[in-house]
Amino acid sequence: MNSVDNQISFNPATIVRILAAIALLLLVANMGGQLLRFSFGEDDAYLRKLILLFHFDHEGNIPTYFSLLLILFVATLLALIAELNRKQMHPHVSKWMTLSMGFLYIAFDEAFQIHEKLIWPFQSLIGEDNLGVFYFAWVIPATFIVIMLGLFFLKFLLYLSFTERSRFLIAAAIYLGGALGMELIGGRHVELYGEENWGYSLITTLEEGFEISGLIFFIWALLKYCEEHFSSVQFHFKT
To answer: What does the domain layout of the chain look like in residue ranges?
Structure first.
């Protein structure tokens, strides 16, 4: 049988536009569901299921799986870049692989919400009253870990070009602005007013929106890196 080389090429801009369009649809569905929730209540079982299906602050639904796929996409791209850099004898291959493994852990956490299990142990350590922005106490160890990782990857970031470094840092700022920044604001809001209100719904929407936007921006940055360093991102299949 003759070998036929089939090639698939991906355009970074096209991929990002598709992902952004999906994210926007999910955002609209989430906000529409919250509008129905606070306007008409959740007495109807079918309406409640529909709202939860797109609710950004609910687990095991469409937004959760979309975020999970984005994180796995990032982990795959990082592993691909690590392998391509290894073949070309470029430095910092281990840093690319470490990032890939880190995002695999984030995917695991996204699926099983490991970080939320740290809330009560840390609350009991620092006291459960008047915690303010640290009401969701998992942000305390998470902030420390982020600082340590920043120091660990500093040499790697300085090795990148100014443009590449700027793209990666912007993606990190957007993602962490949601994952940690909005979580701090949300914690203070919950301590004062609880979770069942428009205010907290808006905060969780912004939180998830920033996280998804940061992931999509990072995907674009990684695809641009591949485009600029490896000519194009291509997958070959032989039949």
So the answer is: 9-238
